[in-house]
Structures are given as structure tokens and as C-alpha cells.
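Quick illustration for those who missed Monday's session on complexes.
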Amino acid sequence: MTRDRRTGEESPTAFGVEEAGRRRPSRSARAPTVLRAFALDVEDDLLAALEPVLAQSPLRHMVTPGGFRMSVAMTNCGAVGWVANRSGYSYSPIDPTCGRAWPAMPVAFAGLATRAAARAGYRGFAPDACLINRYDPGSKLSLHQDKDERDLAAPIVSVSLGLPAIFLFGGLTRRDPQQRLCLVHGDVVVWGGLARLAYHGVAPLKIGHHPRLGGHRVNLTFRKAL
Ligand code: SIN
Ligand code: FE2
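Prediction with fe (ii) ion bound:
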């Protein structure tokens, strides 16, 4: 067990989780790399850049092909954005809500994603899509694989902001056992290689108050989609 210096909570260093700095991250492992507090030194830049993005392409609750309204509110920035609707999941250059291109990816976002990927062993990561997820208390993300991207050689980079959440990280089948990682403001998780198609999800968000984001969690997920 280790004690998180920001939350004081004990968290398991579960099998397979590679805490960067302790062990050299390896691409071969079916494990995510957890970069604790990696985004903290750019939090002001991230939050300042987020505002105009949300003003241009507001958060919305997408509807899955099965007809379910997602509890997580989402939007995107970058050349393409991930969209769900009754006909499926895809990446689109157009925000369907307003019929215009998604906001450009802020330099602070792309720079952080590239640095985090490099720290985890993936050099030259150049994301073209950033999915922005906002969780309210009770919001959750069911177990899923990120598999709508064309380039599965590129990793996924996931930045956690605001309230803490339990991130579930499993294996290549839905039934594989899952690690439960407590992610707090500033943590970044990177997964690729043999873990690229691992099932993952987020447990229902607990009520809380975060000094920067109030009663929410915001997650930025960077991908190379095209
Ligand atoms: C995702 O899988 O798209 C988001 C994961 C998260 O919110 O941590
Ligand atoms: Fe995902």
C-alpha cells in the first residue's frame, strides 16, 4: 500500500499497475501507467483553456446506439471528436450540436498529452482528438474498450481533474478481473501496447467538493483517432 500525498488515502499498488518513477514503464505490460500529479503544474493553463472550448462546443449527454442517455456529459476538441448516436460510435470533424468544427485542441492540452505519453514510453504521441467528460455525482462510465480509433498503435492518455473517482481497469475481455484505481485531480493515466484494448470504466462519482471544480470531475481523454 502507498499513501497518496494529496489525499492522504491509502491506495493499493495493484498488480500490474506501473507507478512511473518506481519502475521503468514497459510497453509490453498489460497495465496502465499511472503518473500521479503529472498535470498539476499546468492545471491553471488547462482550466483556462477549457473555458472557451466549453463555450464553443457545450457539454451534452449523448445517446448510445441502444437508446440510453449517457450520465456523463461530453464534448470534444481537436480535429475530430468522438460522438455517439442511434447509429453508432464514430469520430466526426463536425460537432453535431452546432454543425461546425470542434474547437481546436489547446496547446496546453496537446503538450501535456505528448509529455505524459513520452513519460510512459510512447514518444511522438500527437493526439488529434480530445474527449472531455464531465461527471456529476452518480455519473458513471460502463466498462468499455476504446476501439473506434484507426491507429491502435498510439496510446490513450487520460487526465483527471476535480473530484476523485474510482477508475476500473480490466483486461482484454469483459470478464477479466479489474484493478480499482483512485484517480485524483492532476493524475494522468496512459495505456497502450498490449493494454491498448483493455476494458475500462469509471464507478459512480461520489458527492464532494473540489476547490477548483466544485461538485464535478472532468476527464480529458486524448487519442489519435485518424
Ligand atoms: C474514458 O474512458 O473515455 C474516460 C475515462 C475517465 O473518465 O477516466
Ligand atoms: Fe474509454
